[in-house]
UniProtKB/TrEMBL annotation:
One matching Pfam family: DAHP_synth_1
PANTHER family per record: PHOSPHO-2-DEHYDRO-3-DEOXYHEPTONATE ALDOLASE, PROTEIN AROA(G)
Record-given protein name: chorismate mutase
Cell membrane is among the record's keywords: no
Record key words, sorted: Oxidoreductase, Transferase
EC number(s) on file: 5.4.99.5
SMART domains (alphabetical): CM_2
Domain of life (superkingdom): Bacteria
Lineage: Bacteria, Pseudomonadati, Bacteroidota, Cytophagia, Cytophagales
Organism of this sequence: Pontibacter virosus
Length: 659
């Protein structure tokens, strides 16, 4: 088989060596925009011939694109335009969602297979290529259902010849996971290298004191910026989420060290030692899925209507009670006063309280369930508690708890969610799932899917906000777009807002509660205490039962909760105007991009860089001034311009790199 390889670096060169040595390829034809790479590859036997993209498309049965990810999409599209029937194109970049979207509508999409062989070193170029780089490593094929069956089989044969194990994943899931296990480690190494270089000006001291630990940790900092800068750009959303989680852990380490908490530092290190399970080869569940043709129909969770488990419910559903059960008197009095308001549907109290730091109040424990049961008997209302493991589930059910919820710190751990799901197998009890601490929609959905897999249909979601970095007016940033997207994907899922944890203070509760109602949420979970200022936990975000009733009474409830809203002529006309404006905007944006492409052609012909920083700064400042005069917020203008600017760069990059 004649194999073409575009991009003769470490990955492309190493693939060429082994595919030919192991008899998979009879000849390797290579293409690279760096003449020195071609020269080295020919002199070392990596390539037998050099060819253009057009020549590869005409003579090769298999073409492997091993270029930086910012140019691979354009190269793949160009190849798909030219290849013959039966030729397979695959790419080996470490981001997959972008390229899968780029080729999605191409008429030869089935002849493309998106791959990621997870192997490499910090070295680059054809001189770094070597035999057996891929042996016993893992290759990932993404969105295989969009490729032809024969084409996938051929791609799998390539990696079998390279002695790799192939698994299948969805492209977005791949990019999310790879952000944590690969991209984050490279950023950490780059940051460590920058830190040491900035602090240690005397390089001789670094050399004399650096041990193997430093060398192994900072090794990746030698990796090529040509390769990694485009990767971080393409996977920015997932990389940013990974960094948020990482920074949170760094801050916890710093806090424990600053305060001299050696036992806490010890515990954190001890817990981190569990990473050895992954390093020793433990695989993430559901990664290894055999390839199969696409399913007919769409998988959908079975979600029971909320009025089947809360009859006669009137919007909003209100779940309220103290953050923590502290004493029997406090629980019962708070619940009785809440019941007396007539505004609350379900009583709640924290029994087990996960805390970031040890030696804080971590909940009263099982004895609090007895107090909550007495409150249920005294008021005739349903009760709800948070559970984090199998034991919590068993104890809660034993004391007659009607509704369970899974907290944010538990949702983030699939193992814990699965333990809860297993404990609930065959038990018909409503379960609400709070969003994970980090802004990870897939984790949130995954928790709901695990519970659904255990046969639970009485499901709901609780939006309690997401961990943020830096100072904001919220304890947890709302990031409304994530629960909105969850609701779009699961329209039957009841969505409950937890303003107490979003706000972290009682002053903002009414504002966030109203916003949740305006977004058509099913209900609210608000913390209430008979004496909030003396609460043992989260005192600032709790309110008295009377104040809670005032917040609920002050809500404006709009149409749209049950089913489709009837639209009168006035609203229909206004919406038609919006649709027309949107159509005109898209037309103008398309025309704008045509001008941008002309600019890109000019820059290419005159050897100018795409990014002109001073011009971009001028555009921002001028647009901010115009936007303010037109009543548009600075935040909106900035987000809009960044999106348009990025699209402009993409168009100009395509012009620059066209062969």
């Amino acid at each position: 088989m004649i194999v073409g390889i575009v991009g003769i670096g470490l990955i492309g060169g190493s693939m060429a060596l082994d595919l030919r040595q192991r008899g998979f390829a009879t000849k390797i034809i290579g293409s690279d925009n760096n003449p020195e790479h071609i020269r080295i590859a020919k002199s070392t036997g990596i390539l037998q011939e050099e060819g253009s993209l057009e020549e590869l498309a005409g003579s090769c049965e298999l073409i492997i694109v091993a270029t930086p990810v910012d140019v691979s999409s354009d190269i793949v599209l160009a190849l798909l335009d030219q290849i013959k029937d039966g030729t397979v194109v695959l790419d080996v970049g470490s981001t997959k969602e972008h390229i899968c979207k780029a080729v999605a509508s191409h008429p030869r999409r089935k002849q493309f297979v998106a791959c990621h062989p997870i192997a490499g070193t910090e070295n680059t170029g054809p001189g770094a290529a070597h035999h057996k780089l891929f042996d016993q490593k893992v290759n990932i094929i993404c969105n295989a259902e969009a490729s032809g069956i024969a084409e996938v089989r051929k791609a799998e044969a390539v990696f079998e010849a390279l002695k790799m194990q192939t698994v299948h994943m969805e492209a977005r899931e791949h990019d999310r996971h790879i952000a944590f296990v690969s991209h984050l480690s490279h950023i950490s190494s780059f940051a460590l290298g920058l830190t040491v270089l900035k602090i240690e000006k005397d390089e001789k001291s670094i050399f004399n004191m650096a041990g193997s630990g430093f060398a192994s940790t900072v090794r990746l900092a030698k990796s090529s910026p040509d390769m990694w800068a485009p990767i971080f750009k393409q996977n920015a959303g997932h990389v940013s989420a990974a960094l948020d989680a990482y920074i949170e852990q760094l801050l916890l380490f710093k806090e424990s060290i600053d305060e001299g908490l050696s036992s806490e530092t010890y515990d954190m290190i001890s817990t981190s030692n569990q990473i050895s399970r992954i390093l020793d080869g433990i695989e993430l569940k559901n990664r290894q899925k055999p390839f199969a043709p696409p399913l007919t129909g769409k998988d959908k969770l079975e979600i029971a209507p909320i009025n089947t488990w809360l009859p006669d419910l009137q919007r909003p559903l209100v779940i309220s009670g103290p953050c923590s059960a502290e004493t029997e008197e406090q629980v019962i009095k708070t619940c009785q006063q809440l019941a007396a308001t007539g505004k609350v549907d379900v009583l709640r109290a924290g029994i087990w309280k996960p805390r970031t730091r040890p030696n804080n109040f971590e909940g009263i424990g099982t004895v609090g369930l007895e107090w909550l049961r007495k409150a249920k008997e005294a008021t005739g209302m349903k009760i709800a508690v948070e559970v984090a493991n199998k034991q919590h589930v068993e104890e809660a059910l034993k004391y007659g708890v009607d509704i369970l919820w899974i907290g944010a710190r538990t949702t983030v751990n699939p193992f814990s969610v699965q333990e809860i799901a297993d404990a609930l197998q065959g038990i018909d009890v409503p379960v609400l799932v709070k969003n994970p601490i980090n802004a990870d929609l897939e984790l949130w959905i995954g928790a709901l899917e695990r519970l659904s897999g255990a046969g639970i249909t009485k499901l709901g979601a609780i939006h309690r906000g997401f961990a943020k970095y830096g100072e904001t007016k919220f304890r947890n940033a709302p990031q409304w777009q994530l629960p909105i997207e969850l609701k779009r994907r699961m329209p039957d899922l009841p969505m409950i807002c937890d303003p107490s944890h979003i706000c972290g203070n009682r002053e903002l509760l009414a504002e966030i509660s109203q916003q949740a109602m305006d977004l058509n949420y099913t209900g609210l979970m608000l913390e209430s205490h008979i004496d909030p200022d003396k609460a043992w936990s989260d005192a600032k975000q709790q309110v008295t039962p009377d104040r809670l009733a005032e917040i609920i009474d002050g809500l404006v409830l709009r149409n749209g909760y049950n089913g489709k809203v009837g639209v009168d002529d006035t609203l229909h006309e206004l919406r038609s105007q919006v649709d027309q404006f949107d159509s005109e905007l898209f037309t103008l944006l398309s025309q704008r991009m045509q001008v941008v492409e002309s600019i890109g052609q000019y820059k290419k012909e005159n050897r100018l860089t795409i990014l002109q920083a001073s011009r971009w700064n001028d555009v921002l400042e001028q647009s901010f001034k115009r936007g303010e005069k037109l009543g548009l917020s600075r935040d909106f203008i900035e987000k809009y311009l960044k999106a348009v600017h990025q699209e402009s760069i993409n168009h100009q990059s395509a012009i620059m790199n066209a062969q």
